[in-house]
Design goal:
Structural class: alpha/beta
Number of domains: 2
Number of helices: 15
Order of helices and strands: HHHHHHHHEHHEEEHEHEHHH
Helix content: 40-55%
Shape: globular
């Protein structure tokens, strides 16, 4: 006969084995998100009866958990029912009802319709600044592709058709709804990508994402720098792809107190001299830290592939992915400081 103590003993054993979700629970004051969430999902309803809505914090933590493990709505529903560690993270007991996939989709869709998803990200960033986790000693700006499944095989081979909507011969209307007219194909270093871009600004010391912007995949990396920079940035590190005399002039004019450190690139037919490489080495050493962020998302968080259609939904998922990374990184920093 199973008892409460059996479940408690199993959870205690999971904690002893290093359950990362225990650290994530301690790393975040989850209640700080409640005022915004309650405002977004506020419904004036005086009817009696009916099932009570799931707690907003529980649902929000569920979305973060989903991004930490890159799970679909059906996948996260199954894992919550199956895993004690997930239930404990969400504050659920074994007999509690778990939100189903449709409920999860509707909650995330409500966040999309509100257009206020970035307020949640900025709230947590402000909290990390208050705790001095974000040092403001320097910022790194870079971008990464957010890929989604390809829809038009022929478009990749014919650049002229890259942005055209395909002819859907099937009369099924559901097929057209799955077409993403805002995602784009782009080729980089001989490889094709389809989807969007996540432009981020990260704190160089803590490797926390401080700000971000989401665009389609064809948008040039340096197009978002002006929006990502702020007057608080003392130094901004970027790779050679951001070099542009016109853009640099605009950035320096708007942010005169920010020192721009953009790595140098080999000129056509003329590689950098040894002296130039040595002078550029400190900047490259710092700038490459942003690759640790993207690497963590790729290797530890199941990748950056999205399961949605449209820029608005991609913005919500990207915010959740960036925030999930920040929470995970905060837990790691807390562990290192002890």
């Amino acid at each position: 006969m199973k008892t409460f103590f059996d479940e408690s003993a199993r959870l205690e054993r999971l904690t002893g084995m290093g359950d990362i979700l225990v650290r994530l629970t301690k790393a975040v004051k989850w209640e700080i998100f409640r005022p915004i969430l309650e405002d977004i999902y506020y419904v004036e309803d005086n009817r009696t009866g009916g099932r009570k809505a799931y707690d907003r914090i529980l649902m929000f933590k569920l979305l973060i958990l989903q991004q930490l493990y890159n799970l679909s709505d059906d996948g996260i529903e199954y894992q919550i029912n199956d895993r004690l560690s997930f239930q404990r993270f969400l504050g659920l007991e074994l007999g509690d009802k778990v939100p189903d996939a449709k409920t999860i989709w509707l909650f995330r869709e409500g966040l999309k319709k509100s257009g206020r998803e970035k307020e949640l990200f900025n709230l947590y960033t402000a909290e990390l600044k208050r705790q001095k986790v974000i040092t403001k000693a320097g910022s790194i700006i870079d971008a990464t592709f957010i890929e989604r499944s390809e829809q038009r095989a022929n478009d990749r081979r014919n650049p002229n058709n890259r942005y055209k909507k395909p002819e859907i011969k099937d009369e099924n209307p559901h097929k057209e709804r799955q077409y993403d007219s805002e995602a784009r194909f782009v080729k980089k270093r001989g490889k094709w990508y389809f989807g969007y871009k996540d432009h981020i600004k990260a704190d160089k010391d803590s490797k926390i994402i401080v700000d971000y912007a989401v665009t389609n995949a064809t948008t040039h990396d340096n197009s978002q720098v002006e929006e990502l920079l702020s007057k608080d940035d003392r130094i901004a590190f970027m790779d050679a792809g951001y070099r542009s005399k016109k853009k640099e002039k605009e950035w320096r004019k708007k942010y005169p107190e920010t020192e721009l450190r953009i790595t140098k690139a080999n000129k056509s037919g003329k590689p950098l001299s040894e002296e130039e490489r040595q002078a550029d080495k400190p900047n490259r050493k710092i700038r490459c830290r942003v690759e640790h962020i993207f690497g963590h998302m790729e290797k530890s968080m199941g990748g950056k592939i999205i399961r949605c259609v449209g820029l608005a939904r991609t913005k919500v998922l990207t915010m959740l992915k960036n925030l999930a990374y920040n929470i995970s990184r905060t837990a790691t920093l807390m562990k290192l400081s002890t």
